[in-house]
Amino acid sequence: MKIVVNGKPAGTKETGCAICGATWGEYYAEVDGEKLFFCCDICAAEFINMINEVKKRAGWERVDEIEINGNYYAGRTCVAKHEGKEFKFYIRFGDEGEITTFKVLS
Ligand SMILES: [Zn+2]
Predict the structure, then answer these.
(1) Which helix (H) or strand (E) holds 43?
(2) What is the distance in A from the centroid of ligand 1 to the CA of 60?
(3) CA distance linking residue 56 with residue 72, whole number of Å
(4) What's the 59 CA to ligand 1 centre distance in angstroms?
């Protein structure tokens, strides 16, 4: 999965946490068969919940690419891509990484 957080590649120890871009911490989780780097377990929970929600709503079996813009407090505006299709949405999370707001954008 290609991941871009606030304009920069992310998802490895070198590039930063797959959802917030932080380079501190060290937590790995497997998403769609790929080991991704996160700063903490909460960020991993956020990312996994987000990808599952996108797959469910868009009816995709996987997400090939995701662009994430924003942060925890403001919420995040994202574009997910799969086989040439795009799915745009706005998302916010709660303290445990659960989704508190999810809006499909056109
Ligand atoms: Zn993070």
Answers:
(1) helix 41-58
(2) 25
(3) 22
(4) 27
* Burial degree of 11 (CB within 10 A; 0-12, 13-18, 19+): buried
Cα of 12 from ligand 1 centre, angstroms: 11
- Rounded to the nearest angstrom, the distance between the alpha carbon of 87 and the centre of ligand 1 is 22
Residues with Cβ < 8 Å from 3, sequence gap 6 or more? 9, 10, 11, 18, 36, 65, 66, 68
Provide the percentage of residues in the chain whose pLDDT is more than 90: 98
Under the banding of pLDDT at 50, 70 and 90, the label for residue 44 is: very high
Query: Is residue 47 within a helix (H) or strand (E), and if so which, with residue range?
Result: helix 41-58
Instruction: Name the one residue in this structure whose structure tokens are 């700063």.
Output: 39
Length of the chain equals 106
What pLDDT is recorded for position 106?
Answer: 87
